[in-house]
Design a protein that fits this description.
- The complex is a heterodimer of chains A (518) and B (952).
- Chain A is 39% helix and 15% strand.
- Chain A has 518 residues and is of the alpha/beta class.
- Chain A starts with 5 loop residues before the first strand and ends in a 17-residue tail after the last helix.
- With 952 residues, chain B is of the alpha/beta class.
- Helix content of chain B is 28%, strand content 17%.
- Chain B has a 7-stranded mixed beta sheet with strand order 13-12-28-27-26-14-15, sandwiched between helices. In chain B, strands 34-36-35-38-33-37 form a 6-stranded mixed beta sheet.
- In chain B, a hairpin with a 3-residue loop joins β35 and β36.
- In chain B, α10 (361-375) runs parallel beside α26 (729-739) and α14 packs parallel to α20.
- The radius of gyration of chain B is 29 Å and the shape is globular.
- Chain B starts with 28 loop residues before the first strand and ends in an 8-residue tail after the last helix.
- The chains are: A alpha/beta (518), B alpha/beta (952).
- The A-B interface holds A 259, 261, 276-278, 281-283, 434-451, 454-455, 467, 471, 474-475, 477-478, 481-484 and B 69-74, 77, 85-86, 88, 90-93, 106, 110, 113-114, 117-118, 120-121, 149-150, 160, 180-181, 183, 199-200, 202-207.
Amino acid sequence: MALTAPTGQVFVPGDAAAVSVGADEVAAAFEAAGSHVVRNGSRGMLWLEPLVEVETGAGRVGYPQVTPDDVAAVLAGGATGIGVVDEHPWLTSQRRVSFARVGVVDPASVADYEAHGGWAGLRRALSLSPAAVVQEVIDSGLRGRGGAGFPAGIKWQTVLDAASDLKFVACNFDEGDSGTFADRMVVEGDPFTLIEGITITAHAVGASEGYVYVRSEYPHAVAALRRAIDAAYTHGFLGQDVLGSGLTFDLHVRVGAGAYICGEESSMLESLEGRRGEVRAKPPIPAIKGLWGRPTAVNNVLTLCAVPMILSNTADGGPGWQRYAELGTGRSRGTQVFQLAGNVKQGGIVELPFGVSLRELVEGYGGGTLSGRPVRAAQVGGPLGAYVPAAGFDVPMDYEALAESGAMLGHGGIVVFDETVDMARMARFAMEFCSIESCGKCTPCRVGSTRGVETIDRIIAGQDVAANLVLLDDLCETMTKGSLCAMGGLTPMPVQSAIKHFPEDFEPQETESSGAPV
Amino acid sequence: MSVDQQSIWDPDVDFGTPAIRDAESVTQSVTVTIDGREVAVPEGTSVLRAATEAGVSIPKLCATDSLKAFGSCRMCLVEVDGAKGVPASCTTPCADGMVVSTQTETVRELRRNVMELYLSDHPEDCDGCARGNCELQALAATVGSAEVRYGRPESRQQVAHPQPVDQSNPYFAFDAASCIVCSRCVRACADIQGTFALTVEGRGFDSRISAGGTDFLSSECVSCGACVQACPTSALQENSVVELGMPTRSVETTCAYCGVGCSFRADVKGDGPDAEVVRMVPSKNGGANEGHSCVKGRFAYGYASHQDRQLSPMVRDSIDDEWRKVSWDEAIAKAAEGFLALQAEYGVGAIGGISSSRCTNEEVYVVQKMVRAAFGNNNIDTCARVCHSPTGYGLKQTFGTSAGTQDFRSVEQADVILLIGANPTDAHPVFASRMKRRLREGARLIVADPRRIALVRSPHVEATYHLPVLPGSNVAFVNAMAHVIVTEGLHDEEFVRERCEDADEYLAFIADPANSPEAVAEATGVDPEQLREAALLFATGGNAAIYYGLGVTEHSQGSTMVMGMANLAMVTGNIGREGVGVNPLRGQNNVQGSCDMGSFPHEFPGYRHVSQDDVRGIYEQLWGKTLDPEPGLRIPNMFDSALAGSFRGVYIQGEDIAQSDPNTQHVEAALRAMDLVVVQDLFLNETARFAHVFLPGTSFLEKDGTFTNAERRINRVRPVFASKVGMDEWEITCAIGRAMGYDMSYSAASEIMDEIAATTPTFAGVSFARLDEVGSMQWPVYDTSSTGTPVMHIGEFVRGKGRLVETVFVPTTERSTRKFPLILTTGRILSQYNVGAQTRRTANNTWHPEDVLEIHPADAELRGISTGDLVDLTSRVGSTTLRAQVSERMPAGVVYTTFHHPVTGANVVTTENSDWATNCPEYKVTAVQVGVANARGDQSVAETREPADTHA
């Protein structure tokens, strides 16, 4: 039952997650019924997709899991909705900063973006000196959202200070971690935010060219971004003399070729240069010698999407960086876009200030497992992140607290498992993932990951379990300390956390006589 | 005689990462403490290198000091006080005050564990391990990895990814089973050679080295050997090492191919007559090559022991007779008596000699001494006559020295490179790699060449301008470049005024609108706008360096062009420092040296004219003979005089004039007209068909002496084994002199150099002992306190002021006509060398089994020619037949071939036109017609010729 009469505008998410459950067909059906359809982004309540919103005098009213068959009923006001979406408690309890416009605006419309506060950060940044922009980002406490958590402003300062007639901004949009999708959703739902963030970065560090490196598995995001970049050029937000400021900045999209390792920043730079995606040794760091050997600001999508808000004034005229810095806890300032996935009842985007507990996210927002069985573990921070046992879910979600507990935040992805999970197989999966996705450059990762799979197979098969556990531990130490990059260096984290928290899964199974792993 | 040899093979210390070069940094020094030892190194030096310099050995596999740090093997991990983790010492730069520990329990354990991972996929039956030629095996012993808990493949078939051995390349094989995927080969191919033929395919544990997805032979690989050199295991291994086993001793020597003059370590197995070269390894201390090599020097040395090699002196009374093997005494007597008889009958000037650019300085010096002192005339010339004589003349006239101005390393400071009439990737490949590296760093390139040579566009290299200058129009082109610069006011007025003479005349001359790009466009075929842009780049792009080859010199205006380039360098102030200069890329290993040694009829060693009484006095006193103050005959004059009947006998040292000199018919007629032709060579070459005395020569592997390369670098040539013919070449020459009644003898080659040094100011500080001590020296070496002169004309030209010459463009008389509408130009290819006498007797024929005629598609279509067709190539002097290759590299109207194979007889068609100043033949411009060869009725000259050495 509709709260108020429809005013004609219907929002059907064009987000790939919504499309995967039939949003395109639903949108076509609305159009066929004469509705004016806007393909917005997803609100991040993925279990409700396709979540159709109908504009009413009271606001946008949501209808979950709509099929083409429901269209007539929705338009007639006869369908069951979730009320005004903006008032949904799952959203109102969040603190959406980077995702403030995602699902709200028309991602194809420059005007809609501007009407929702877009470009304010860029306009203000262009009125400031590069050094002043960098200082505000430093003061905001913004840290890299790609996983390493390095202070973004410090990185920019390095690029700004590096002497070169040519500098670059490179946006890492190779979102390959399992259980992560925030980058994709923000670009599909609000691409101008990223463009604005990158352009501010260019001004801050003195870059004249930027590249967004997108994984090929994200065709919808590529299309949305290219469309938005074209529009930004048309309206003077990119190219020669941006907004009359004198800044010349060109932005290009480059699509990867399916390698996880290209999400590692130096591999990404190699790939951008047209080479095989292979990790570079550091030093030199990219901020000093990056793309084509030039100083390059390499930042994750979410990092850059926080920038426009940091640079724009608040509604009451206060500095954005200060508002941002007021959020969060300890040295983890601002908000984190958490992504709930795996065996979870209510998966999706939860943006909150740092410090929320994992339990609140998994059991509160997530509502427990989809299977209804008790939660046994969650893997936080992607395939290289630790498995946290349910008993440890009270850990506050910030960089330092997680590190202290032997885990890591990574890109904020949380994958939930119920009690049926076999943690030995999950440990094996971590090594297998590494053996497939390693760039093959350094020996601990290239050879070690395969030997890790074999060793865990022997453990699972009950062969010399004690000796093989020692060997596995040696191997994990070698990979952790000896690997060239975080790929090999962090692969032991899920393995060792699984062994530490779930040793029973690695003990010889009496029922299993021997041999072949599944 | 005894073979001078260095004792046992002692591999150079590998410092892991390259040295920091002065130019790269501010050369600030930092001090670090490594395992308690303090060491000061230039800022930017890796911890690995600093440790090695301090005498601390850190295990490494992927690091080698010819390549930039890579950081993949994780063997060189160390701990640094105050730093987290265990950084790789190869990728960690030293910081002042850093305290490094290389042997903590943590890193030792890590190294053991990483080694265990390596060995878990390394076969126990690895050939390299068995041969003791495997860094992996050596390191396993060092770091201690007795047990491989993961298990280890027993055989090559049991490794994770067994693959067949790639044996496609004739010189080396790739066995993936022994490969540890360290990427040293891939990096060497990219960073050192610049070919980018190798890559890593797959990822993770599936990563494997690949020659671009195909086998090595079918790939872009140019077989330079850099990958084999870089490989730490036996995955990439010379076939010769597999066949002969590891060497037992080694000898440092110098390559005998092109004018780059690469230093090599000849690895040898055995002593005495059975000694064999196991491999040639480029020396990283070699001044010219710094550890790099090409397919010729690295692999194509087998000709020295080829079955065609002649080891016995031979004589015959008539060239129609069979050869008769005789003793040295008999052969020398026949030559000497014959020469004396001819002089008695026809006069002192009836005989002469031709020295070889392939022989050592000492051998050449002795030949010119024999001619001047024993023959008593100045009828000495050298094969440089037909290649770079205009270089000697032109640079002497303008700068005062008959040689290039720079060392090769200078190119690393060049910002703009103007490459004219040279194809370095084929003809001077090791220098080309150096140039390509600089181009990848951002230097810009202007190519002036009718062909689209590889440097116009190849992986990671692209010329900013390719100006397809038509053959014969170089002078017009270079004048137009200078015209633009001068008329735009971009010339270096200060340099011109302070360091040059005849400036006003030259500036007025060059500013004449007749020299404008527009005015010469028809002659040069170059778009005036492009030429103007190129000229602006040359004048304003920073350090501008000119490199050129035979495409400059082998013209009727070759000397004018050399002076034109000197003008261009002078008006832009690009002389007298690093990164600039006028640089000839000389063809033969010792063409610079043979010229230096007084091989020209008008000059004593050191380019001093025979008419100079003081100079002549030096030699008259030393040699005890009155010397002729008049210049003798040049090679073309010898031929003409032979046909006229006044020149009757010649001694030819290691040059195949019947194949390499132009207008073959003319040369052959001259040779036939002579009464006594003495040929000294490794093989019965084309010229030997006309010889009466054949004196077997020695290969570079048997020579003791010096070669001087294109950068004036005097390199030592050391015998790997004793002369296979029983005598050294200089001994043979001396014996002829003595048999003619002139006492000339030396007890060792070093004594000859001592005589050169004593009589030639530019060599005054040179001796074998000093060369052995410092490695090499670039002349001038004025005294024994000097180690040579890498860059010349700093502050002042050798002749005082640089001379600006009015280089008027005079078109060649050789032009396309209705009957001969195309212009033929000639060149070289990578795998073959010159007339091919050496390379054709090696597996290098794999790449270039025959010469082909490259022709533009439009010219081909007009004549109904397709690639692979046999075509007749006809000029006004001769005709030959060869296979066509339709090629977009060629501009319309110009065809191209190489002259490596005698059957081609490219010089059957080249004409007698030559440089006005030096008689250097105009090989690069011949008007020709091309047509599909008739079925059999119209047999060409080349087909009816019987190349001597293929029948020998």
